[in-house]
Amino acid sequence: MTEPNDARVGLYIDFDNIVISRYQQLHGRNAFQRDGIRNFDKFSRDADPDIAAKLTAATVDFNAIIDFAASFGTLVVNRAYADWSVPVNASYQRQLMSRAVDLTQLFTTTTRGTKNGADIRLAVDVVEDLFRLPDLTHVIIVAGDSDYIALAQKSKRLGRFVVGIGVAGSTSTSLAAACDEFEDYDSLPGISKAAAPERGDKDRAPEPSEARQETTPGKVHQLTTIPMFSDAGDTSLNDEPDIHEDIDPQTIATELLIRALQIGHAKGDSDEWLNTGTIKNQMRRMDPSFNEKPLGYRSFTDFLASHSDLVELEESGPQRLIRLRPGAGTSAQ
Question: CA-to-CA distance for 72 and 67, rounded, in angstroms?
Answer without folding.
Answer: 9
